């Protein structure tokens, strides 16, 4: 996954460095629960490597919305298929 915060003045989080987030690894999808788990193989934020991150997802028409399982993390990512 790669994402850049649209707000250049936003503070970095546990997942970002200089407003940018990038990591990859194997993904396991649980369609019934509406979640997926990614085990981070490599990341811009090296402290994430080896962690398993569980995320909620919702697909509607041409839109994918990903949110944290813990809503207190306070973020949301929306992708639109073109």
Write the layout of secondary structure elements.
Layout: E1 2-4, E2 20-24, E3 27-30, E4 35-39, E5 42-43, E6 52-60, E7 63-68, E8 77-80
> Count the helices. How many?
0
- N-to-C SSE string, H for helix and E for strand: EEEEEEEE
Largest pleated sheet: 5 strands, antiparallel
Uncertain residue segments: none
Question: In total, how many beta strands?
Answer: 8
Q: What value does the Rg take, in angstroms?
A: 13 Å
Q: Summarize the amount of helix as a percent range.
A: under 10%
Description:
By secondary structure, this protein is an all-beta fold. The protein has one domain (2-80). The protein has strands at residues 2-4, 20-24, 27-30, 35-39, 42-43, 52-60, 63-68, 77-80. The strands form 2 sheets. It has a 5-stranded antiparallel sheet, with no helix packed on it. The chain has a 3-stranded antiparallel sheet with strand order 1-2-5, with no helix packed on it. Strand 7 and strand 8 (77-80) form a beta hairpin. The protein is globular. The two termini are 18 Å apart. The model has no long low-confidence stretch (mean pLDDT 92).
């Amino acid at each position: 996954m790669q994402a850049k915060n649209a707000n250049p003045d936003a503070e970095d989080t546990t997942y970002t460095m200089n407003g940018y987030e990038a990591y990859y690894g194997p993904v396991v999808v649980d369609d019934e629960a509406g979640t997926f788990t990614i085990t981070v193989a490599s990341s811009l934020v090296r402290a994430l490597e080896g962690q398993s991150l569980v995320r909620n997802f919702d697909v509607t028409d041409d839109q994918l919305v990903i949110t944290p399982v813990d809503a207190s993390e306070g973020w949301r990512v929306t992708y639109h298929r073109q």
